[in-house]
Amino acid sequence: MTIIFDCRQVAHAYHEQVRQRLVRLPFVPSLATLLVGHDDGSIVYRKYIEQDAKTVGVQTMRYEAHDLESILSVIREVNATSTIHGLLILNSGKSSQDITIMNAVDPLKDVEGLHHAQFGHLVQYKKHPEQNGALNYVVPATAKAVVKLLQYYQVPLEGSHVGIINHSLRVGKPLSLMLANLDATVAMCNSATPRSALIQTCQAADIVVTAVPAAGFLIQPDWIRDGAVVVDVSYPGNLTGDLYGKASYMTLPLQKDMGTIPPEHGRCGRLGLVTRAMTMMNLAYCAEWQSH
Q1: Among candidates 263, 267, 162, which has minimal Cα distance to 206?
Q2: pTM greater than 0.85
Q3: Phi and psi for 101 in degrees, rounded to 5?
Q4: Dihedral of CA 271/276/281/286: which sign?
Q5: From CA 281, how far away is CA 287, in angstroms rounded?
Q6: Which of 202, 284, 290, 291 has the greatest count of CB atoms below 10 A from its CB?
Q7: What's the whole-number mean pLDDT along residues 13-25?
C-alpha cells in the first residue's frame, strides 16, 4: 500500500510550532518580500507566503525590484531597518548575480539560509544546535521541508540510500548535506548525469527526491524499486499516479497526473506547503537572534 504524504497536515503542525515560538518574543516579527521582476509564479507564491504569515501572526511588507542595483538597494534598506526581521527574495534564482544577491542579505535576516555564513553551518554540522543555550540556525527551506516531511512520517534516514535529482543551492546541495549529516548515504544527479546513471541511482535508492524544473520530466515506474519513498519538489511536477501501489510513500502528483490515486488524497497538498512553513520557522529563528 502506498501512503500519500499529507503535506497540509505537516505544514499545520509546524505552523503551530512557529506560533509557540513567536509568543515568547517581545515583538511581532516582520517579513519583507522582495519580488524581482514580474514572474507569475513568484507573484502567486508571495500571496501564499503572506497568507501563511497571517496564519502564524507575522507582519509582512512588500518590495519590488528589476535589476541588480535596485535589488541591492532594497536589501541595504531591509538590512538597516530594525523593525524588519527577515527577507525573502522571490525569483532571484533566475539572475546571473544570484550569489551576489544572496550574500548581500544580513545573515541575521536571511530566512532563505543562502548566505555563505548560514550555508556553512551545514558543513560545520552540530547534531544538537540548541543544547547549552545555543540558537538554531537557518537552512534552505525547501531542503529542510524534505527532511522534516520524512522525519514527521518516521521514514528511516540513518543508513538509507538517497538519490537526489537536483544539485542547486536551494535544493540539491543543502539537502545532500542535511541527509549526510543524518547518516544517510547520498548520491546527487545533475543535468550532466547520463540517463543510465540517473536511472541506476534511482533504482538503488531507498528514498528518491526529484526537483527537475523542466516541464515533461517524469520519474518512470521502473526507475523506482518496490517500497521506495519518493518526494517531488519540482514546480512542474515530476511524478504521476503510476507510482501509486509501488512506492511505500510518495508526494501527491499534479491533479492531472493522479492516475489511480483515490480522489480523497487530493486534499493532501504538495511539498510547497511544508516549504512555506519552514520559511516561517526560519523567520522565527531570525527574530529570536535579533531579540538577544
Answers
A1: 162
A2: yes
A3: -65, -45
A4: positive
A5: 10
A6: 284
A7: 96
